[in-house]
């Protein structure tokens, strides 16, 4: 089976990419399979810049095609924060629970109808000698007052998806993969790659 390398060290993302790519006929490798590679510093000012940075750096190092995901949560009442700082919102140690606690505290006095938010995902595909491709996916929701559910990762337990009537963390992996920002971005990438093949 052909394999695709995703430039991520996030176990939650890795699992999602696996279930999204396996049906498409690709085995998934991540940076967890290359522990010798150092973290790429996310110095970009938006998701797309960071995704390109991660994909191009790792593609150059390995000399093969690499996909990277830069994603996060934009909360309207916080003017789009945590945004690109989602992973390290409560500190450099990337503690999902500490990040959730910080968001809930900042939204303490914000009423339900003003707690709207959006998950965003930029994917970049870099390949030696080719122009880097980028796509974007998003998913709308609302931040609850408390966490619910244990599936998924990151901010999933406080992100309520209206049309499912559940938080992302209450959805099964299959359900999340039908509606998520990441799934939408992968679908778009898929379409572009298919168009290319047809040419
Ligand atoms: O950079 P890599 O190694 O891919 O892993 P990361 O966790 O640092 O990933 P990002 O820099 O893209 O930061 C994304 C953060 O946004 C949050 N996030 C992204 N997608 C999410 C999802 O589907 N569900 C919940 N939280 C998500 C979560 O806190 C992630 O750590
Ligand atoms: Mg990161």
Record the SSE blueprint.
Layout: E1 2-6, H1 11-21, E2 26-30, H2 47-62, E3 66-75, H3 96-106, E4 116-126, E5 133-143, E6 159-161, E7 166-167, H4 173-179, H5 181-198
Parallel strand pairs: 1-2, 1-3
Antiparallel strand pairs: 3-4, 4-5, 5-6, 6-7
The structure holds inosine 5'-triphosphate and magnesium ion (MG).
> How do the strands line up in the largest sheet?
2-1-3-4-5-6-7
Q: Based on the structure given, which CATH architecture is correct?
A: Alpha-Beta Complex
Q: Tally the helices: what do you get? A: 5
Low-confidence stretches: none
As a whole number of angstroms, the C-alpha radius of gyration is 17 Å
Bound molecules: inosine 5'-triphosphate, magnesium ion
Overall morphology: globular
From the N-terminal CA to the C-terminal CA, the straight-line distance is 24 Å
Beta content: 15-25%
Structure description:
The chain is α/β, with parallel strands linked by helices and 199 residues long. The chain has a single domain (2-198), classed as Maf protein (Alpha-Beta Complex). Helices cover 32% and strands 24% of the residues. It has helices at residues 11-21, 47-62, 96-106, 173-179, 181-198, and strands spanning 2-6, 26-30, 66-75, 116-126, 133-143, 159-161, 166-167. Strands 2-1-3-4-5-6-7 form a seven-stranded mixed sheet. Helix 4 (173-179) packs across helix 5 (181-198). The longest helix is centred in the C-terminal third of the chain and has 18 residues, at 181-198. The chain is globular, with a radius of gyration of 17 Å. The mean pLDDT is 96. Magnesium ion (MG) binds next to loops. Homodimer. Pfam families: Ham1p_like (PF01725). Substrate binds at residues 8-13, 71, 153-156, 176, 181-182. Its cofactor is Mg(2+). Its EC number is 3.6.1.66.
